[in-house]
Amino acid sequence: MATDRYLTVSALTRYIKRKLEMDKHLKEIWLKAEISNFNHHSRGHMYFTLKDDRSRIQAVMFSGNNRTIKFKPENGMNVLVKGEVSIYEPQGQYQLYVQTMEPDGIGALYLAFEQLKEKLHREGLFDPLQKKAIPSYPSHIGVVTSPTGAAIQDILTTIKRRYPLVKVSIFPVLVQGEKAASSVVAAIEKANQLNLFDVLIVGRGGGSIEELWCFNEEAVARAIAKSKIPIISAVGHETDYTISDFVADVRAATPTGAAELAVPSQTELINRVNTLTRSLHMVVKGTVLEQTRRLSQVNKSYAFRYPEQLLRQKEQDLDKSVEKLGRIMTYFLNQKKEGLRQIRIRFGQQHPQRQIDQAKQHLQLLYQRNDRAMRKEWIDKQTSFNQVLDKLTLLNPLETMKRGYAIATEKNGQIIKSTKQTQPGDLIMVRLQDGTLDCQVWGIEEGEEI
Amino acid sequence: MTNDHDDKSAELSFEEAMQQLEKIVEKLEEGDVPLEKAINYYQEGMKLSKLCSEKLTKVEGQMEQIVNEQGTFEPFIVQEEE
Amino acid sequence: MTNDHDDKSAELSFEEAMQQLEKIVEKLEEGDVPLEKAINYYQEGMKLSKLCSEKLTKVEGQMEQIVNEQGTFEPFIVQEEE
Amino acid sequence: MTNDHDDKSAELSFEEAMQQLEKIVEKLEEGDVPLEKAINYYQEGMKLSKLCSEKLTKVEGQMEQIVNEQGTFEPFIVQEEE
Amino acid sequence: MTNDHDDKSAELSFEEAMQQLEKIVEKLEEGDVPLEKAINYYQEGMKLSKLCSEKLTKVEGQMEQIVNEQGTFEPFIVQEEE
Amino acid sequence: MTNDHDDKSAELSFEEAMQQLEKIVEKLEEGDVPLEKAINYYQEGMKLSKLCSEKLTKVEGQMEQIVNEQGTFEPFIVQEEE
Amino acid sequence: MTNDHDDKSAELSFEEAMQQLEKIVEKLEEGDVPLEKAINYYQEGMKLSKLCSEKLTKVEGQMEQIVNEQGTFEPFIVQEEE
């Protein structure tokens, strides 16, 4: 229930809208204002702000209305508009719904200016590539301006001061008013016909936009563009440009500036010549000096000044090689010698004398053994022989005869053991100790047997 | 030769002489000029310098002229501003 | 032969002579130049150095002469005007 | 035979002779050279070293001569200016 | 016979002689060499040793001779300059 | 017969002769050798020992001769070098 | 008969003779030998002993002869060495 007292925002907005729509004044408003925040929407509607020094209002001009306007609204443009004020509900914003729009008075000239500028620009008359160079040292200058007034005097004074070498011819023209444009065009054409000038200065002193207007005329612009002579434009103030300024080959802010651009300064020229001459001298002298230094550098080079150096290295190399050769060869020989010496030591240790001596000793021993063994053998045999001989001697059966026994034998050697073996008259042998007796038996005496 | 050269130089305008001098100095400043050429340039440059110098100092009092509608010249007297 | 050689050298510009000279010196400084070549290089180098030296002296003389011919070298003293 | 050998050696440059000499030294350093070959190498090496020495002496003489010939020219050394 | 032998030995190089000598020494060192053989070995060894020695002496002499022959060239003493 | 024997012995080496001698001596030393055999052995042993002795004498002679022949050999002295 | 016997004995070696002799001595020692036989034995023994004696003497002579024959060689007197 308590909420019944509260409105919705939409309700409030709608209420305000109704209130505004009931006001007849707001239904048909005429405004003089400047455009800003201009936005030509892609769907054709124009949205912008209209303002004066203190206030602003949002405005919209629907495509159905803006299709008929003869200029292109732009920011900063002063315009006269007719429309009604209403509310744009979604944002709760009041705005002016514009129905017609015209440029304001001064805004019309500006517009014409901009539009011509745009046109000529598109034609290429401002093309920097088309611009002719201003000669550095002109000998004859044409000045298209009013023969009276400060401008011509400024120009002449400046030229005289800077470059008295140049000739100046003046084309007196009207620089304001209806006939101004044709007068300027004619002068430019005449100057071109005369074909005497290195450069033209075209212009006048400053003034209001209306006073300067002839320099915004298309005819003047085209005459300037057509001119074979390079043209310096010198119109108005430093801040304002005219169409002529854009078309001219060079734009000077003031007539004095134009004169300065048209001619060099004699002082500067003298300085320039001096500078060039000095540079010439310095550069050439520098070249000579540099080359001298370069040569000197080369001459100073070690290899060049002390050519013996080239040899010294080689001499040292050679010495080294020779020395090395000698050293290596000596070393080589010594190694061979050492090898030989070593083997000789070993060889010396193998001297056969020792072998010989050993053999000798061995031989002597064998010799001695041989001799000894033989002698022993012989002595042994001798001894055993002696023993046997002794025994034999002892067993000698004839030994008893030494005591006087005798052995009688028959002539045939038969031992006579019995008397009966003999008869007297027999010849018998009787062996004694030291010989045998030849005997004859004389008688026999028989005895007792022993 | 000197005469020849002088004559030829005499035909040069101040502008041409200056330009030639500048070109010579430029070339020399660019470096890389062979020594023998450099001395030739030097000689040429010195001559041009003299020429320019003479032309600059020899000021002729030029008069301003008015070109009238017929395209003829009349001496110009500065009119006081109206 | 000396004449022959001189003639040939006479055709060399200063720069060419210098370049040859510098190359020779470089080679000599690098070391490693075969002995027989080294002596040739050296001889050639001496000749080139002499040639260059003469050319420089000649150019210096020419410069002096040109300056003398043109009289004062500094063309004019700028009159302070402004 | 000596002439023969000299002629053949005469064709060698100093560097070639030095190289051969070094090779010989290397071979001897390697050791495995038969004694009789070694002495031949040595002889060859000594000959080469003599050759080199003579070449050096000759070049030294040439150099001296060149210096004497050019003697008067005395290559200038720039007076330090800057 | 001596000549015969010398000739035959003359054909041996130093190294071959050394090798043979070494073989002989080895055999002798092994022992067990019959006396007559030992004496032959010894004799052979003596000959080889003498041969080697002579060869060395000869080569030494050659070296000296070579040095003396080249002697005149007397390797320069580098002049102290630097 | 002596010759015959000598020839036959000549074929014996010193070592073989010594071996035979040793055998003979051993046999004799064993005893029980028939007298005639013993004397033969003895004779043989004496002959062998004479042979050996001669061989030794000969060998010694050879040694002397070798030493005398090679006598000069006197081992060299390695030169101090490094 | 002597010859006969000698011949027969000549065929006996010293050792055979000694054996026979010893046998005879043994027989004689046995005693039972009739005188005649004993005398025979004895005679036989005497013969044998004479033979042995002669052999011994002969061998002695041979020994002497051998020594003398070989005598010239006179085995060295070993130099006392070790």
From TrEMBL, chain A:
Signal peptide: none
Recorded GO CC terms: cytoplasm; exodeoxyribonuclease VII complex
Boundaries of every OB-fold nucleic acid binding domain copy: 7-102
Cross-referenced Pfam families: Exonuc_VII_L, tRNA_anti_2
MF (Gene Ontology): exodeoxyribonuclease VII activity; nucleic acid binding
EC number: 3.1.11.6
Cell compartment(s), UniProt: Cytoplasm
Reaction catalysis annotation: Exonucleolytic cleavage in either 5'- to 3'- or 3'- to 5'-direction to yield nucleoside 5'-phosphates
UniProt KW Hydrolase keyword: yes
Keyword field: Cytoplasm, Exonuclease, Hydrolase, Nuclease
Domain Exonuclease VII large subunit C-terminal: 125-440
Top EC group: hydrolase
BP GO terms, sorted: DNA catabolic process
Sequence similarity: Belongs to the XseA family.
Function per UniProt: Bidirectionally degrades single-stranded DNA into large acid-insoluble oligonucleotides, which are then degraded further into small acid-soluble oligonucleotides.
Subunit structure: Heterooligomer composed of large and small subunits.
Protein's UniProt name: Exodeoxyribonuclease 7 large subunit
Organism in which the protein naturally occurs: Terrihalobacillus insolitus
From TrEMBL, chains B, C, D, E, F, G:
Reaction(s) this enzyme catalyzes, per UniProt: Exonucleolytic cleavage in either 5'- to 3'- or 3'- to 5'-direction to yield nucleoside 5'-phosphates
Domain of life of the source: Bacteria
Sorted UniProt keywords: Cytoplasm, Exonuclease, Hydrolase, Nuclease
E.C. number(s) listed in UniProt: 3.1.11.6
Places the protein is found: Cytoplasm
One cellular-component annotation, GO: cytosol
Protein's GO biological process: DNA catabolic process
Subunit comment: Heterooligomer composed of large and small subunits.
Known role: Bidirectionally degrades single-stranded DNA into large acid-insoluble oligonucleotides, which are then degraded further into small acid-soluble oligonucleotides.
Designated name of the protein: Exodeoxyribonuclease 7 small subunit
Species: Terrihalobacillus insolitus
The organism's taxonomic lineage, starting at the top: Bacteria, Bacillati, Bacillota, Bacilli, Bacillales
Name of the coding gene: xseB
